[in-house]
Amino acid sequence: MSKPHGQLRQSQVITTYGPGAMLDLPNHSVLVAGLDYWTGQGDEILEARLVEKLKRLLELPALKLFTPPPDPQDPAAPQTGISAWQFPEWFITQDVEIDGRSSAIRSRMLVPRKALTRGKYIDHNRKKRNVVPIRFVRACSAGHIGDIDWFEYVHQGNSECRRQLWIDERGTSGVLSEVWIRCECKAQRPMTDASLPDRHALGSCDGSRPWLGKYTNEPCGQPNRLLIRTASNAYFSQLMSVISLPDRDDDVSEAVDAVWDFLEEVENAEQVKYERRKARVKAALEGITDEDVFAEISSRRGGVQEQPKSVKQAELETLIAADEELGDDRPDGNFFARSFPRQQWDRPWMDAVERLVLVHRLREVVALVGFTRFEAASPDIEGELEMGVRRAALARETTWLPAVENRGEGVFIQFKKTAIEQWLSRNDVKEHGRKLEAGFDLWKKEHQGSHRQFPGLPYILLHSLSHLLITAVSLECGYPASSIRERIYALSDVGYGILLFTGSSDAEGTLGGLIQVGRKIHEHIHDALLLGDLCSNDPVCAQHQPDNPHEKRFLHGAACHGCLLIAETSCEHHNDFLDRALVVPTVENLGVEFFGHTSL
Question: What is the distance in angstroms between the CA of the first residue and the CA of the last residue of the chain?
Fold first, then answer.
């Protein structure tokens, strides 16, 4: 195990370089070790709602959240840090040998780590050769990873030959069709064989989990797939986040504490009403309903708890209820929101907007739950992680998870349920929705292991508008578009809305730019709708059909890099489920838009 000296921001550990991730350091290529090998922990993060969700998800009796270990500034302090294993363990020499038969063929020696001496390879002529890690490894969709057995690969399992291996580049582009593995015994094989899943050229996965240490293999048996270790699909962190909400139960708990002697024998809400006749109980429970009091009593007795609300349901209910009394004016408060008067933003194109809330202060807690490779596993539209998803473990035995808390600000836009329901009832909208769903069905056929569900038209509508709005507001709010994030609420039982927010673990995220944007939100929504009218790639963009098997953009309607696609750090669904034709009329004029030309 190596402990290379390198520094990352704590938030990078959560999002990009958690356990099981590969990264290049100045002198090493490493695999970040599991939580068992982290030295020390940061500060504990208290967020009961998130902890309860994660305990249920991971089926754990107890769990805590800590920030990744910080770098101690005091040289005399105990050392803290994140250990890493050297990976991969096969290398290629940096010296290029030109094949005498063709100057276009460049050959490098392929050598294992055990053949190195002090980080260099000494060939049969006693020449020291510098080496770099090979860029090809094997992995499976369950997150397992390991070195390719290159002897097995080049000989296709038909020989015990262990002569010198070479990697030949038969061109200058670096594409797999030009890369060949060659043995001195004349056996050779192109890397394209490894990239074809039906060839099974890399064999079956042995369940290797090297980030957890030795002897941690688990049963697997899936076919190995070729993975470029620096590719974007090598590591997808699976995150779960919640926005801290004001705890409205504190007042109830304190009131019940004050008169518990009177209430501990209460059996129903009617008896609470009877106890209120006593002056002391009446004074303590003033402003609290009998039902809330009895719910607190039942909770203390370990009674049956109601089904917990989803992540986004609890947040949406709080944002909708924002008024003069909601929030906390304390400087260290976690949540402070105020409704913005309608007369300040009421315009014809804002007719479908129910409410505007300026979130002056919010706290988001993000926890790393696991990771996947090849395919990202996103939360569903209610912010919940799927129970059945096979995620790679972060530790042999999980007792804590790394997390960060981001503090910032935001703008919440609530839409009228009646307006969205009327739009959904239109026949042309229903027909377009069937096309989008047909595209999703084709995507599912190509991703058999995915647990994704079609999010529905209201989600795609709000998601597309959110991306247009992020682009529009980033021009004035002082934050780059990549720093503004979205949270889409499309819950038919509760309501519909968009929260644009920014947050950071340091001072960034509390500059007030989004609040000022919120005060002129009508102007920015107008600009966003105009942006959606025409794309630089029209008419090709507007004419795209999601169920077209040739383009293979099954999760997009009228959406491309010229109009709707934004930085994936901002999008909660990795730039999927987008269609601006649902927002405004495009050059195709499908007639399925939520905002018509007349509203502008």
Answer: 62
Phi and psi at 58, nearest 5°, equal -95, 0
pLDDT of residue 597: 59
Which residues touch 103 (CB under 8 Å, ≥6 apart)? none
Task: Identify the pLDDT of residue 331.
Answer: 43
- Which tokens is 584 given? 């405004």
Is 341 exposed, middle or buried (CB count within 10 Å of its CB: 0-12, 13-18, 19+)? exposed
pLDDT digits 0-9 by tens, 223-244? 899 999 888 888 888 888 888 8
For the record, the structure tokens of 514 come out as 């989004």
3 state DSSP class of 400 = strand
Q: Which residue has the tokens 């704590």?
A: 10
Whole-model pTM over 0.70: yes
Helix (H, G, I), strand (E, B) or coil at 460: helix
Pair type for strands 400-415 and 64-66: parallel
Task: Write the pLDDT tens digit of every residue in 276-285.
Answer: 888 888 888 8
Percent of the chain with pLDDT over 90: 26
In the predicted model, what is the mean pLDDT of residues 36-51? 84
Report how far residue 496's alpha carbon sits from residue 355's, in angstroms, rounded to the nearest whole number: 11
Q: How far apart are CA 219 and CA 267, in angstroms?
A: 51
Q: How far apart are CA 20 and CA 22, in angstroms?
A: 7
Distance from C-alpha of 36 to C-alpha of 527, rounded to nearest angstrom: 50
**Domain-by-domain residue ranges, the chain?**
90-228, 249-309, 327-599
Are the beta carbons of 82 and 32 closer than 8 angstroms?
A: yes
